[in-house]
Specification:
This protein is an alpha/beta fold and about 220 residues long. The protein has one domain: Rossmann fold (3-Layer(aba) Sandwich), CATH 3.40.50. Helix content is about 50%, strand content about 15%. The chain has eight helices and eight strands, in the order E-H-E-H-E-E-E-H-H-E-H-E-H-H-E-H. It has helices at about 15-30, 35-50, 85-95, 100-115, 125-130, 145-155, 165-180, 200-219, and strands at about 5-10, 30-35, 60-65, 70-75, 75-80, 120, 135-140, 190-195. Strands 2-6-1-7-8 form a five-stranded parallel sheet, sandwiched between helices. A three-stranded antiparallel sheet has the order 3-4-5, with helices on one face. Helix 1 (about 15-30) crosses helix 8 (about 200-219). The longest helix has 18 residues, at about 200-219.
Length: about 220
Amino acid sequence: MNNKINIAIDGPAAAGKSTISKRVAEQLNYIYIDTGAMYRAVTLLYIEKGKDIINNLGSVEISFKREDSNRVILNERDVTDEIRSQTVTANVSEVSSFEEVRSYLVAMQQKIGLEKGVVMDGRDIGTTVLPDAELKIFMQASPRVRAERRLLEEEARGNDIDLDELTSQIIRRDELDMSREISPLLQAHDAVLLDTTDLSIEDVEAQILDLAKQKIGVE
């Protein structure tokens, strides 16, 4: 596998993008970039410091400590756990819709992708961030199944939340992501659609790896 490619994995909240992307990157020895974590990091700052941060994004530095489970570093501060709070989750769609935020983070993400060998997941990777990615995947699953997956994550963090409420939150998040004016959640015309509702993590990983190896073999 000498010919490195970029892999864009898009889809709605809790479709399994991060889990799958991380596993695919490990198998290919590629760099994994969780763009959702980047938007969550800016959202955390927005909550802490207010709207002024939107006009001062040049001071925001985000990196990933890959040797330690891809932990998220915001201005030299480990915010991996903080950015998964319910407060951040409730505000991330709004903050992500700001043109200044999207422009700043997209430029950062595109710079990362220049060297190839990147697996990047989000909501606008195949359409906006890496439109020339050699392999594009759009993952989806039913809102209920996605809520069940998110519930397991929340319970693991010690959070007590109702499944029906989680389902409603995910549906609202989908509506916000798909209706925003700037880089809405869309399936790229050349993306492979994968419905993960009835698939295991291993099944999805295997399918994407097969597609990636085909692309690598012909590039």
